[in-house]
Design goal:
The complex is a heterodimer of chains A (757) and B (295). By secondary structure, chain A is of the alpha/beta class. Chain A has 21 helices and 19 strands. The longest helix of chain A is centred in the middle third of the chain and has 90 residues. Chain B is α/β, with parallel strands linked by helices. Chain B has a six-stranded parallel sheet, sandwiched between helices. In chain B, strands 7-6-8-9-10-12 form a six-stranded mixed sheet, sandwiched between helices. Classes of the chains: A alpha/beta (757), B alpha/beta (295).
């Protein structure tokens, strides 16, 4: 037990609680009694004096009236007999002293003529009172007097009396009262203090023993006991503490035994747990190994499946372009479709596997939404055209299109829905719409077709793996039944939702939202705002005359790539590894470099890294081909300067579209075509806007922004023969920027600004 | 007063004019009514106060068979009014009657009056009865009575004791005169003077009476109660009774007039038994005294 420094001990508390109120009460009562008794003594004196002077006033009427001094002296003598009245003075009608009896206190003049008067001095009380002749009404009939000129009853003064009371006895009496009161109070207080002290000791002594014993018990001496000598509650408390100590000792002994037993058991359990942990660790390592093996297996399978498939699909596409008999064309188409289905199945299975094991993480890299949409539409345009289906893109965004997110996964989702839409639409349109939420918290995509549609029952199982409407669908349209499941999981990872509205025979609209996508705040690109909806019909263009270097160690794929590009009119230099590619580049700068990811000596990534030491991404675009969809890291590829990754098996159209986009002039032309159909006013507004941005960028020496907007200007101006002059200047300016000839830029900027649009 | 004052004046009736509604005048009225009833007089008696007279004017008393005027103030107001009815004065001292009569114009119709002043012979007879061995009696006069002392002292020679006249005037020290009177007489007989004088001197008379052990015979019941040994006086009822007798006589015969203020015919005695004991005296009973006092 620790005592606080600020708290009082029981002994102090008892003394305080007993003595403090007692002292206070005693002080109050004593003061009250002393003052009361002193007041009584004074009142007694005043009463005596008043009684005496009243008696004198009544008794002295006749002597005063008759001037009988002897009678007055007798009256005064009778009054002064009291020890505290020292003097009696009689005054006549004129206020003149008639008789003084007792001690002389000087001739005090009459202070009040009509009423009694009293005055207190240091040592005396002085009382004065007038003496009247008290008339007696002795007439039985009172009627006659008024008429006879009688006035009303009047008091007739006979004289005055003064008595002087000595205060000395009163003061002595007051002192004795004070001493007696204080003495009695002190005695009683002292007595009370002794009783309280004795009482507090009777409590604190046994309590002290209790505390001492409890402290010994606390320190571990369980044999300590209180020697009971007190009575009542303290005895009960002492007995209780002793009994408690007994129980604690017994309990302690029992606990010791139990603790020993428990310790032994715990030791055994710990040993077992340790053994289990070792086992678990072994199992965990095995599982990790198994997982790695699985990943490696999947990567290997992916690569091994994709590589021959690339050859199959590529050569099939080349065969399709060759002159074949009708029967052969049908057989080639069958091979081509089967290969595509197989490739799609492999891709979907890999994605599904990743999503299921939750090992697929979204990337957060900068990308341009418009470019992404262009890629999607460009990819599906041939298929749409083949089915005579109009593919429309409607962009209604009021915010920046420079975003940060995972463009490849977003593109995958869009491709899936657009592919499905084209697949299930025999005629009509497939419209891709993009808009943003009102609060700019994400994007809303819609893919709407005028295809076969679905009834309500069929919609319910759309997002279950390997589920298709019916077997006829699978036979007729192909597909693995995993596309929607993967899309749903990807959209979910983007923090969005998917909604499907469909009516059998009328078409289907798939709407999905993307949340985990952000505006690129550090981008210098100005916001591109579509003030009104633009519907953009898309078309393709040729690679004729362009030089493309292909680095691929697989001879079949190498030949395939040569065939694809040469079919488009391009010149192709094919090499077997990265080193050879670098040598070829040094000899002649190509328009495009296509690198395989896995090559001997110098793989695609490292080759690209070295190329970027010579040419920038804009000067020489690089396409990386890979069949390793598991291990390839998009971020790493982008970091070393890869412009585009294309997964094997290579689809000819996809590769061609990509190549066209990346080769700058062709890309610019493409953009120009894309803008066909836009109204002339909008085109002018956009050209003027770009001119302003170009001027601003040049003034601020922001050559990156300048280059970007010169490209946009090239694309838009080249779309119309009316703007040919500005297109030509922009092209020259672009060339100067590429060669970093910044000194002569001003001339071109001036020329551009001078041209009125 | 329980009597309702009628606003419709009975010009043929009898009216009593009183100064105010007080018990003293009510007792006079009681005496009048009792006597009238006893003698079968049925004429209604209207009671008029002085405030009624001032408010309603003198017509309330005009053309009455008789107007009875009680008290000196009523008498004074009546003489100042225009009323010309026959009238009787009552409950008035001779001095007041004389004073008011002199200070107002003469009015016809005076039938007579009843005074409250007791004749001196009654006091002297009473003194003899109180102190049978009486040799010297002091007759104490105030300044007003002194003026007409011949009337008061008329016929005193018939008594076998010496009557010493003590005149106390306004500028006198009454104590000295009274001490001498007490020192040389066996009894003091007091005569009523003005009220102020009576009241102021009464204390000394009574105090010295006790000091000198000399009895005092007074003229009012209050005096005896205050300390005089015995008082001789007429009560209000007795004055009323005598007034009623005068009214009856006049109402029965208009020519029955006394034309003067009569001394009270009926009187009473009051003995202060405490004083009697204090003075070591033994007086006959009240009835014995009344029986032996000549009217």
């Amino acid at each position: 037990m620790k005592e606080s420094n600020n708290s009082l001990s029981i002994k102090q508390s008892i003394l305080l609680l007993t003595l403090l109120p007692s002292l206070f009460i005693a002080a109050v009562l004593t003061t009250y009694l002393i003052l009361s008794r002193q007041s009584d003594a004074q009142n007694e004196l005043l009463l005596q004096a008043n009684s005496a002077i009243t008696y004198l006033a009544k008794s002295s009427e006749l002597p005063l009236f008759s001037g009988d001094k002897a009678a007055l002296e007798r009256l005064a003598n009778a009054t002064i007999f009291r020890t505290d009245i020292k003097s009696v003075t009689f005054y006549d009608l004129n206020g003149k002293v008639l008789l003084v009896f007792g001690e002389e206190f000087g001739n005090t003049p009459i202070q009040s003529i009509n009423s009694p008067y009293s005055e207190e001095t240091v040592s005396h009380w002085i009382f004065q009172t007038p003496v009247f002749n008290t008339e007696l009404d002795v007439d039985d009939f009172n009627d006659n007097e008024d008429l006879l000129g009688e006035s009303k009853k009047q008091q007739k003064y006979l004289g005055w009396i003064q008595i002087v009371a000595d205060k000395t006895p009163l003061l002595a009496k007051k002192r004795s009262i004070l001493y007696a009161g204080v003495g009695i109070a002190s005695f009683l207080f002292g007595l009370l203090a002794l009783i309280a002290l004795n009482y507090s000791r009777s409590i604190t002594f046994p309590l002290g023993q209790l505390i001492k014993t409890v402290r010994e018990l606390e320190s571990g001496n369980l044999h300590a006991r209180i020697l009971v000598s007190s009575k009542g509650e303290l005895k009960e408390l002492a007995d209780g503490v002793n009994q408690l100590a007994d129980k604690v000792k017994i309990s302690n002994d029992g606990l010791k035994i139990k603790i020993n037993e428990a310790t032994q058991k715990l030791t055994l359990t710990l040993s077992e747990l340790e053994a289990r942990n070792i086992e678990l660790e072994v199992t965990g390592n095995e599982l990790v190994k198994a997982s790695n093996v699985k990943d490696e297996f999947l990567a290997s399978v992916s690569h091994e499946l994709r590589t021959p498939l690339t050859s199959i699909i590529g050569y099939t596409e080349l065969l399709k372009k060759a002159k074949l008999e009708v029967k052969q064309e049908t057989q080639v188409d069958t091979i081509y479709q089967a290969s595509k289905i197989l490739l799609h199945l492999i891709e979907n299975i890999l994605d599904f596997s990743k999503l299921k094991s939750e090992s697929l993480d979204l990337e957060y890299i900068p990308f341009n939404l418009k470019e992404l949409l262009d890629e999607v539409t460009s990819l599906h345009l041939p298929a749409a055209k083949a089915k005579n289906v109009i593919l429309k893109l409607v962009v209604d965004i009021n915010s920046s299109v420079d975003l940060i997110g995972d463009p490849s996964r977003l593109e995958q989702i869009l491709n899936n829905f657009v592919q499905n839409a084209i697949k299930f639409t025999e005629q009509g349109t497939v419209k891709i719409s993009v808009s943003s939420f009102d609060d700019n918290s994400g994007l809303l995509f819609s893919v709407k077709d005028t295809g076969i549609g679905m009834d309500v029952q069929n919609q319910s199982g759309l997002f279950e793996p390997f589920n298709q409407l019916d077997s006829s669908i699978s036979r007729r349209f192909g597909g693995t039944g995993l596309g929607l499941v993967i899309c749903k999981k990807l959209v979910s990872q983007f923090g969005g939702t998917i909604e499907i509205k469909s009516e059998k025979g009328s078409g289907t609209e798939v709407t999905f939202s993307i949340k985990n996508i952000y505006r690129n705040e550090v981008s210098n690109s100005p916001e591109i705002t579509f003030n009104e909806k633009t519907e953009t019909p898309l078309d393709d263009e040729s690679l004729a005359g362009r030089l493309i270097i292909v680095a691929e160690d697989n001879s079949f794929v190498q030949k395939l790539l040569i065939g694809i590009f040469e079919n488009e009119g391009a010149r192709v230099i094919a090499v077997d590894d990265g080193f050879l590619a670098l040598e070829a580049i040094k000899k002649q700068k190509p328009d495009l470099l296509v690198l395989d990811y896995q090559m001997p000596f110098l793989d695609g990534i490292r080759t690209c890294e070295k190329v970027r030491g010579i040419y920038s991404e804009d000067d020489l675009p690089v396409v990386l081909l890979t069949a390793d969809v598991i291990n390839i890291n998009n971020t790493m590829a982008k970091d070393v300067g890869v412009n585009q990754i294309i997964y094997k098996p290579i689809v000819g159209d996809e590769l061609v579209v990509c190549a066209r986009k990346l080769i700058s002039c062709e890309n610019i032309n493409k953009i120009g075509k894309v803008l066909d159909g836009v109204s002339e006013d909008i085109l002018k507004d956009e050209l003027n806007r770009l001119k302003k941005i170009i001027s601003t960028s040049y003034k601020s020496k922001d050559y990156i922004s300048l280059k970007k907007h010169i490209h946009q200007l090239c694309g838009i101006a080249g779309s119309s023969s009316e703007n040919k002059q500005i297109w030509e200047i922009a092209k020259e300016l672009d060339a100067k920027l590429n060669s970093q000839e910044y000194d002569c830029l001003e001339e071109y900027i001036f020329k551009i600004n001078k041209i009125s649009i | 007063m329980g009597e309702a004052i009628s606003e419709t004046h009975n010009r043929r009736g009898v009216s009593v004019l009183v100064p105010q509604n007080s018990s003293q005048y009510q007792r006079v009225l009681n005496g009048i009514r009792k006597e009238l009833n006893k003698n079968g007089i049925s004429d209604p008696v209207n009671v008029i106060t002085l405030s009624n007279l001032q408010r309603s004017g003198s017509r309330v008393l005009d053309n009455k068979k008789l107007v009875v005027i009680v008290g000196s103030r009523s008498f004074d107001q009546y003489l100042k009014s225009d009323v010309n009815s026959p009238y009787i004065t009552s409950l008035i001292t001779q001095n007041a009657f004389n004073y008011i009569s002199v200070n107002n114009k003469n009015k016809d119709g005076f039938v007579g009056g009843v005074s409250i002043d007791q004749p001196t012979r009654r006091f002297l007879s009473l003194a003899k009865l109180v102190v049978p061995d009486l040799k010297n009696a002091a007759l104490v006069f105030g300044p007003e009575v002194t003026k007409s002392k011949e009337i008061v002292l008329k016929g005193l020679k018939n008594y076998k004791f010496i009557s010493n006249l003590i005149e106390i005037l306004l500028n006198d020290n009454p104590i000295n005169k009274l001490r001498k009177a007490y020192e040389s007489n066996e009894v003091l007989i007091l005569f009523p003077d003005r009220k102020k004088f009576n009241n102021s001197i009464s204390r000394w008379i009574l105090t010295l009476s006790y000091q000198y052990k000399i009895p005092v015979i007074s003229y009012s019941k209050k005096y005896a109660k205050a300390g005089a040994l015995v008082s001789l006086f007429s009560t209000s009822e007795q004055i009323g009774r005598q007034t009623a007798e005068m009214m009856i006589s006049f109402l029965r015969n208009q020519s029955n007039k006394t034309n003067k203020l009569l001394e009270p015919k009926y009187f009473d005695i009051y003995i202060n038994r405490s004083v009697e004991s204090a003075l070591n005296l033994t007086l006959p009973s009240k009835f014995e005294l009344l029986k032996n006092i000549p009217n």
